[in-house]
Amino acid sequence: MFYVHSTLEKCSSYWFHLFSTVLQVIKVYSEDNTSRAVEVPSDITARDICQLFILKNHCIDDHSWTLFEQIPHLSIERTIEDHESVMEVQSGWGMDSHCCLYFRKNYAKYEFFKKPLDFFPEHMVSISSETNGIMSHSQLIQTFLSSSSCPEIHGFLHAKEHGRKSWKKFYFVLRRSGLYFSNKGTSKEPRHLQLIAEFSDSDVYTLLSAKKVYGAPTDYGFCVKASKLNSARDLKLLCADDEQTRTCWVTAMRLFKYGMQLYQNFVQPHQKQKSSPMRSISENSLVAMDFSGHKSRVIENPSEALSVAVEEGLSWRRKSCHRLSSHGSPSTSQSSMSTIHVAQLWFHSKLSRDEAQKLITQQGLIDGVFLVRDSQSNPRTFVLSLCHTQKIKHFQIVPVEENGELFYSLDDGHTRFTDLLQLVEFYQLNRGVLPCKLKHHCARITL
């Protein structure tokens, strides 16, 4: 009931706004390259666009849906911040640039507010010379958001020399005033620091094919681009040695450019949820009940409630498969159980290893982002692809047969599951042999 009312409220608010302003047509793509053209108000923001497609496609709004700007001829892309005007972004595109808007998940968009240690390694962060001192991580985000304090990111990066094909390593310093490189080793003296970019009218992008397109020494490339310039010669091309380093620089640049606005973007949807009385009443009124005995009882132990819920889910699944195969043989029932994963959003069938890595990278390199796919090397097995510490690892899911029954296992048969759905649900609750729990599934939608 709450979902219906909130959806109608959002729709009515959107359409009222739609008819009260000038309309323009925009085209948005999804990850499978399907697209949809929609008529929207000229002052629409990236968050508004995401809300519109969440409603149109009946997606779950977990605050990770994001609008991306992709510039194919430069092979670069960036997150369009939730508050940004989409029409202003498009106004910076050249007539023949073929730039695109993409709607997809980005679990890492605001993760640095929750886990700053994962994004800002201690050896790369300090307080600038004006304030004398070392930054404590507990104050890190507050320092970034405060206009009076001066945090500093520093370290070595490869830079593409202007007008040349070669890349050279320099010591860089990022401050609120801009990005500098030192022309004398690691010196931070003002006479040795040269400004190469400021962010008042520029944005930071990631390079989609750093090695292939730009001849970079690694694939962890990014760049700074002025808003109104769309030529490769106008890009400040940079390259890190690893993903953690690149993520630190890109995240810090976003924070320096937008500051408190990013934090407001992060907390706004959560504040709306908390302020909804219908949601709080419905959630507070739900209790776990046990109806197995002569009298019903409230289950007060959370662990017991969880185990009962899991068992009920498994029981429902067995009954569903039995009904589906009621006119077939017992083997048909086993087949129904073993193919239940096909309808799950986390299952991506014929995806290759490289494609899986690309999809997870696109949707956010944070702990627990995962998908399940067919194994290319062994047609009888599956692979769980999982992100942990900004690295993607692949775990083989092996079928195990016993007494004519088929099970699936990640640990050589020690822990067995009747189907992939049961396996995923287990590792969402328990880390087991994995480096972390399964938390965010990679999902693709068709617009």
Automatic annotation (TrEMBL):
Domain PH span(s) in chain numbering: 150-258
Subcellular location: Cytoplasm
GO biological process, one term: negative regulation of insulin receptor signaling pathway
Pfam families: BPS (PF08947), PH (PF00169), RA_2 (PF21989), SH2 (PF00017)
Residue ranges occupied by any Ras-associating domain in the UniProt entry: 24-108
Keyword rRNA processing: no
Superkingdom per UniProt: Eukaryota
Keyword set includes Cytoplasm: yes
InterPro entries, per database record: BPS-dom (IPR015042), GRB/APBB1IP (IPR039664), PH-like_dom_sf (IPR011993), PH_APBB1IP (IPR039665), PH_domain (IPR001849), RA_dom (IPR000159), SH2 (IPR000980), SH2_dom_sf (IPR036860)
All residue ranges annotated as the SH2 domain in the record: 346-442
GO CC aspect terms: cytoplasm; plasma membrane
Keywords attached to this entry: Cytoplasm, Phosphoprotein, SH2 domain
PROSITE patterns: PH_DOMAIN (PS50003), RA (PS50200), SH2 (PS50001)
Annotated family: Belongs to the GRB7/10/14 family.
Protein name: Growth factor receptor bound protein 14
Species for this entry: Sinocyclocheilus anshuiensis
